[in-house]
Design goal:
The chain starts with 6 loop residues before the first helix and ends with a helix. The protein is an alpha/beta fold and 200 residues long. A hairpin with a 2-residue loop joins β2 and β3. α2 crosses α4. Strands 1, 2, 3, 4, 5, 6 and 7 form a seven-stranded mixed sheet that branches. The protein is built from four helices and seven strands; from the N terminus they run αβββαβαβββα. The longest helix has 23 residues. The chain has one domain: Rossmann fold (3-Layer(aba) Sandwich). It is elongated, with a radius of gyration of 22 Å.
Length: 200
């Protein structure tokens, strides 16, 4: 016996599908953002460029560690010495530590003086490791500026460890995602450029 779908059943199924879809794109009970923010490297390797070398001599760029305030897809806002908020209508496309790592790796690669590897076994086979902590990548409402602060740790093949703090800020930034996002991208690229010179 064939079980035919009635118009009522079809409408109920369609309504259920729409409800399920809206549940998938909901962000904590609020409407999804009009746009997602990202970090993009200002210097990149052109298409067709190639590099080669021994994997043991390569540099692996690790995703930096972060505190809980940066372990979200939001931009933290410092409102006082003891209080924190998140910028309205500002959502990263992925967590900021991964975005910063991508900019860092591409910037170092674009300099052409280091073979940079990432992903899988190659990343762990490289005997030079760049790791560290992304201390800040946010907005300071008390000064109207964005701040990117990165504590780099470079481990060389002979076991030598070097550390250095890199920091850049952009001032005069309104507390609006349309301004804060580009300013953070600018500051992150400045930091990445300094780190690239340091490891080179």
């Amino acid at each position: 016996m064939t079980n035919k779908a009635t118009p009522t059943r079809l409408m109920a199924a369609a309504l259920f599908s729409l409800t399920a879809l809206s549940g998938c794109i909901s962000l904590g009970g609020i409407d999804p953002p009009d746009q997602l923010l990202t970090l993009t490297p200002s210097a990149s390797v052109p298409a067709g460029a190639a590099a080669e070398g021994e994997v043991a001599a390569a540099l692996a760029v690790q995703v930096p560690s972060v505190s809980q305030r940066l372990n979200v897809n939001r931009i933290p806002v410092t409102t006082s010495d003891s209080s924190l908020a998140y910028l309205a209508d500002a959502f990263w496309v992925e967590k900021p530590a991964q975005l910063f790592r991508n900019v860092l790796a591409e910037t170092i690669r674009s300099k052409g003086n280091r073979l940079v590897v990432n992903g899988g076994e190659l990343e762990y086979a490289a005997r030079t490791q760049l790791s560290g902590q992304l201390v800040d990548l946010g907005y300071d409402a008390t000064t109207g500026s964005v701040v990117v602060r990165y504590d780099a740790v470079l481990e060389s093949p002979d076991g030598t460890i070097r550390t250095q703090r890199f920091e850049e800020s952009v001032s005069g930034v309104p507390a609006d995602a349309d301004f804060v996002g580009p300013a953070l991208n600018e500051a992150a690229n400045r930091v990445a450029d300094q780190v690239a010179e340091w490891v080179g």
